[in-house]
Design a protein that fits this description.
Blueprint (H helix, E strand, L loop, with lengths): L3 E5 L7 H9 L6 E4 L19 H11 L2 E9 L2 E2 L1 H9 L2 H4 L2 H5 L5 E8 L10 H10 L2 E11 L2 E2 L1 H14 L1
Parallel strand pairs: 1-2, 1-3, 3-5, 5-6
Antiparallel strand pairs: 3-4, 6-7
Length: 168
């Protein structure tokens, strides 16, 4: 192992989050998983969605990667709904498949977000940081990027470059 995966949780397949991933992954150092390629239902206390794509995806992620980087646009001051459903389903690993969830201990997590402007609200990264802490993962940090027109802002590119040094 020793490899890194970016889990993309955007509602737009080729939008700004994709542009950030392309910039961050220009040397193809990371694998990318687009959550739009999977059918993942919401968390259910009776685990009625246990036969969807979430558990097989997590088995793959846990077995193949040491570092998990979450990529999300900012929607309504929060992570995307796609990413939120994924995070809610981590509860499956605390109850339904504990042995799988325990394998997250010691792995590394990071997050990057993006929006049209440099306007990220304080506390945005808290769900990622606290989830990492709760799961026994090492939180490597996070960065936020924004755009000038259709292009990543120059200052944001510098932040991405610094961020990639942390997660490599």
């Amino acid at each position: 192992m020793g490899s890194t995966v970016i889990i993309k949780g955007s509602s737009k397949r080729k939008g700004n989050t994709h542009k950030i991933i392309d910039y961050l992954n220009k040397d193809n150092d990371f694998d990318v998983i687009d959550l739009l390629d999977y059918t993942i239902g919401p968390f259910d206390y009776e685990f009625k969605n246990s036969n969807d794509d979430f558990l097989p995806l997590m088995e793959k992620v846990i077995s193949q990667y040491d570092t998990i980087v979450f990529a999300t646009p900012v929607y309504w001051y929060n992570m995307s709904g796609t990413m939120k459903i994924f995070f809610d389903r981590l509860s499956d690993l605390l109850h339904y498949r504990k042995e799988l969830g325990r394998q997250l201990r010691g792995k590394k997590m990071a997050m990057f977000s993006n929006s049209g402007e440099n306007d990220l609200k304080k506390g945005f990264s808290m769900p990622f940081l606290e989830s990492a802490n709760y799961l026994g993962m090492h939180y490597l940090g996070d960065t936020h990027s924004w755009f000038t027109g259709d292009d990543i802002a120059q200052e944001a590119k510098k932040n991405i470059d610094l961020f990639s040094e942390k997660i490599l």
